Structures are given as structure tokens and as C-alpha cells.
Amino acid sequence: MMLFGIQAFSQESTEERLLLIKANELVFSDPDETIKIANHLLKKDFSESNKALLNLLLANSYKAKGDLQKSTTYIFEAGSNKKISDSLTIEVDFVKADLCRKLQLYGQMEIYLNDVSERLSSINNNDYIRSVSVRSELERAEALLLQKNYNASLKLIDKAESDNKNITDAYSCSANLMLIKGTVLNYLGRATESGSYFKQAFDFYKKQRKPNTVFEIKVLLGTGQMYFAQKEYKKALDVQLLALQKIERLNNPLLKEIVTYQLAECCLAMDHKIDHQKYFSSFLTINDLNINMENEAVNTIYSLLNKEQDITFTQEESRLKFITYAGLILILSLALAGVVIYRINRSKRRQLKEIIGYLEVSNKLLIQSDSGKKEVNKRITISTETENVILAKLKKFEASTKYINKDMSLATLAAQLDVNTKYLSEIINKHYNDNFNAYINKLRINYIIEKLKNEPEYLNYKISYLAEESGFSSHSSFATVFKTITGIAPTVFIDLIGKEVTEKKA
């Protein structure tokens, strides 16, 4: 990123270029300083490309801090200008793909990686093209790792390793490649091999001479897992405590969740019961906060994607209007009007059929397919008897309307059902293929849909009332979740339901 970063600021003052270089150097070691510098530079009257570069720096800085929601906001701002260079757009797409992978939005991740591949056709630098291809392979390998498809992940990493040998050092991905391969080997039970790759990863990293605290932490976490697998618990504990110190300085909750879990496991293996309880309690607290943060980040991504689609639609609409007006000069206005009316009516009929089809299956929103269940990173073993008891309690909860309580949370529901929060979260993920927030949101949306279908007076209520009635804290969050689940905005849904009711009466 530094290469085109300096080029982008070539027309700016020496002071501003030096600030940019400093900000870029500190992204993954002192993200707070990078954020301060980037915000300072954004106040100046720069070109759109320069602003996109600064927003990219901000997105990477917040990603280094584990704040996925802010990172998402800034990276979409960076990519909002379609006139930026292909190389800068590629970097933006890589950050978007990385965020989608972290949030388990694998389909959207593939869209961005495919866009990266398409843009390579305009690049003349062969080393850069190979480097980008290797980075894409590693991104997909990490996605397979999160899905616990370790053998497929390792196969893709081996291909990336072979491709990386043909790249000069300036574009080499060796450090990240060795780190990811060591991590996969750990999960495959090949701890001794993984240790050598972690060492190689750190050696390659030191040659780069650019501080990256996030990378150092990941190497330490992988090394700690290796020692734990070899039952060298004292070494594992020391390495994990060192990682915790670095994480505390970085203030990254996602990494802190991982290290507190590893520390809890290590203390348990060493029979340090008090320390085990301390770290496990910390892990549970951070895990709940991270679930909420990740859910907010997912909602932000969907909201920004909808916004991008609306902008594209508006631009396309303007283009079509221009063509239509030009055509009016050449052809009969009556014939053209007839074609336009026919297309509009056909579109409306298709939309009405789609919503009627949706209404027929709306009561099945919570039924999940066993074949589509996601894997989770930390699978918890629960006895069949306990699992059935929790499921029975959930069914009673779903039959009530307690889920529309605005204060409903994982901890609150666990207390009401008298179950452990981790068990409850695991059962919801396993049987409903959703995290807690998505599970509650679907119950609430299904509740308000039933009201709209069966109680006509609800069609006259304001969206803010429907949001409050179904337990959402705001009009905007209700609208976002409603569109995410049903595929259309609540106002459109209400309008179509109203038309259906009117037609039935007629």
C-alpha cells in the first residue's frame, strides 16, 4: 500500500507526505496514532483518491483494534468513489473481504475477491499480480480454516506457497503464509511442524522492518497453542501472558477473547483453579460483547450494501431516463408509453407474487436446514439430555412474547431459562443456525408480520410504533433487520399487504 500511497500524495506538501508515511508505518502497531494522523489529514482539501487512501488507513487501524463496525464504515467510505485507481480499489476490496470473512459472510467475501481478480487485467506489474493472487488464496484458506475444513485449507496454502516462490521480496507474502500454515498444522495435530513455521513467520516479519503488533500477537497465540498441544503448559502460559500484554496495549477485544480462552485452558490443565476461573470469566464477558459488536458490524455491512445498491439503481435510472427522452424524439410517444406502462405493470405483478409467496412461508422463518449448519470455532460438548431440556425451554419461550422485551439479551434469557449462557448460545447456533441476536430478531420480525397479516389496524400504524411493538430500540434498526430478513423494506411490505387485502375485499 505504501507504493501507491506516496504516489497519491505526490502533489501534496513534504510535511503531509511524511505524516502519511508515519501513519502507514504505525497502522498495526499504534493504530490510535494512525487514526489521529489520518483524521487530521482528512480535514485538508485533498483529492478523492487521497481521501480514499486515508479512509483505507482508518479502516485498517480500526481492524487492528478489533472494532469491526468502524472498520466497515471507513472501508465502504474509501470505496464509495468509483474513480480511484484499480490498485487502490484492490486494497479496499481486500479489507472488505477480510471483514466479511471475520463475520462469516463467506459469499460476500467471494464477491470481493472475484472483483480483485477482474481488476488485475489493468495492472502491468507481474510481481504485484502474483502477490495479489497469493493474498486471495490465503484469504480463502483462512475462510476454510474458520469453517474447520483444515485439509482443504492446507492444500490451498501449499499452492500459495508454491506461487509465492516466484515473487520478489518486495511483494512477498512469506510472513503471513508461514503464520497461516503454522496455525492450520496446529489444528491438524502436527504441533512440531507448526512450530518451525511460526519461527519462519517471525523471521520473515523481522526482515520487513515494519512494526506489526497484530502479527506478533498472532505468532505468540499460535506458539502458545503449539506448546499446549505438546503439553508444555508452563511455556504455553508464559507465551500467552506475553500475548495478553501486547493485546492490552492494542485494546483489541477479538484477540483478547482468544487469549483469555487459551489462558483458561492452560490454567485448567495445570490445575490452577482460581486463575482458570478468572480467565474463563473474562472470556465469557468479552465473548458476549464481541457477539453484539459482530452483529452490529453485520447490520452495518448490509445497510451500506443496500445504500450502494440504491446509488447504483439511481444512476442506472438516470441513464435509462436519458435514453428514454432521446428515444421520444425518434419514435411515437404513444407506443413508447405503452411499452413503459407494460413493463411497470409486469414488474409490479412480479413483486406482488414474490411477496405473496413470502407470506405463505413467513411462519417458517425459524425452521433451519440441518444440511446448512455452520461450524463454530469453539464447540462445546453438551449432553443429549441437557440439550433436549434447553430446546424444550426455548420452544416455550418462542410460544410466548417475551422476546419483544427491549432488554432481552443472552444473559437475560439464560437467567429466565435457568441455563448457562454458553450452553444456550451453542444450542441456538447448532439448532437455528444463528447467533443469539439473529435468533431474537427473527422471532420479532415474525411476530410483527403475523400482526400485519391478521390484524388490519396494524397496517395504519407508523413504522416507529411497529418497531417499538416488536421490541426494537429504534426505527432504523427495525427497518434494517426487517429488510435483511424479508428482502424488502417494511413500508413496501405494508403497502403490498394492503393491496392484497383490498383485492380480496373487492
Main attributes of the structure:
single chain; 506 residues; mainly alpha; Serine Threonine Protein Phosphatase 5, Tetratricopeptide repeat; 4 domains; 23 helices; 76% helix; HTH_AraC; DNA-binding; transmembrane helix; TPR-like_helical_dom_sf
Structure notes:
By secondary structure, the chain is mainly alpha-helical. It folds into four domains: 1-123, Serine Threonine Protein Phosphatase 5, Tetratricopeptide repeat (Alpha Horseshoe), CATH 1.25.40; 146-210; 215-330, Serine Threonine Protein Phosphatase 5, Tetratricopeptide repeat (Alpha Horseshoe); 349-505, Orthogonal Bundle (Arc Repressor Mutant, subunit A), CATH 1.10.10. The chain is built from 23 helices and no strands. It has helices spanning 2-8, 14-25, 31-42, 48-64, 68-78, 86-102, 106-119, 126-146, 150-164, 174-187, 191-208, 213-229, 233-250, 253-269, 273-330, 333-361, 384-399, 410-417, 421-432, 436-454, 463-469, 475-486, 490-505. Helix 9 packs antiparallel against helix 10 (174-187). It is globular, with a radius of gyration of 26 Å. The N and C termini lie far apart (64 Å). The model is unreliable at 365-377 (pLDDT under 50).
What topology emerges from the helices and strands here?
Layout: H1 2-8, H2 14-25, H3 31-42, H4 48-64, H5 68-78, H6 86-102, H7 106-119, H8 126-146, H9 150-164, H10 174-187, H11 191-208, H12 213-229, H13 233-250, H14 253-269, H15 273-330, H16 333-361, H17 384-399, H18 410-417, H19 421-432, H20 436-454, H21 463-469, H22 475-486, H23 490-505
Helix pairs in contact: 2-3, 3-4, 4-5, 4-6, 5-6, 5-15, 6-7, 6-8, 7-8, 8-9, 8-10, 9-10, 10-11, 10-12, 11-12, 12-13, 12-14, 13-14, 14-15, 21-22
Transmembrane segments: 322-344
Keywords: DNA-binding, Membrane, Transmembrane, Transmembrane helix
Domain HTH araC/xylS-type: 404-496
